[in-house]
Amino acid sequence: MKQRKSISTRTRFEIFKRDSFRCLYCGKAAPSVMLHVDHVLPVCEGGTNDPANLVTACQDCNLGKSGVLLSQKPASLKETAKQEREKFAQLNAYNEWLREKRVQQEQWVAQIADFWLRLEGEDPTQWRLGTAREQMVTQFLRRLPAEEIIDALSITYTKSWITKPADQNRYFAGVCWKKIKERDTK
Predict the structure, then answer these.
(1) Which architecture characterizes domain 9-65 according to CATH?
(2) If you write DSSP's letter for every residue of the chain in order, what string do you get?
(3) For 38-51, what is each residue's pLDDT tens digit?
(4) What is the model's pTM?
């Protein structure tokens, strides 16, 4: 990185003199403000210490300007309001999409729970699947379509030798993970 030579005291004084010891941005003058010499084209943008690139600026204007070009104007209030409305509209649309996604997921969980209870010979209107099983279904719904999960349940319940609920849960989870692995390798 190329080092820039600092502005000499003599050059600084000549710039102040040329600009009548007055900030060219806000008009404040010495001695009521601390004056600086500012690069019109910032050093970080390739500006030099040539007097044509230097102006007198009060401390507040110079530090506030920093490395920003004077040609870069802040957005108007109208433009800022338009951008804020757009952000708000996007946020509302995103929140609506999340709500729709959650409602759809709840419907799928209910559909799978009803199917699971019927496989166990229970009436879905009288029984709940249980929190642990619902959480398991919810996790698999993040990786598998509902029909794949229903298929995994069908496979699990064709195994008549699996009688304990804990074993059924493990076998069902294993079938789901196998399906996930198959999908991920495609």
Answers:
(1) Orthogonal Bundle (1.10)
(2) -PPPPPPPHHHHHHHHHHTTTB-TTT--BTTSS-EEEEESS-GGGT--S-GGGEEEEEHHHHHHHTT--TT-PPPPHHHHHHHHHHHHHHHHHHHHHHHHHHHHHHHHHHHHHHHHHHHTT--TTT----HHHHHHHHHHHTTS-HHHHHHHHHHHHT-TT--SHHHHHHHHHHHHHHHHHHHHH-
(3) 888 888 888 888 89
(4) 0.55
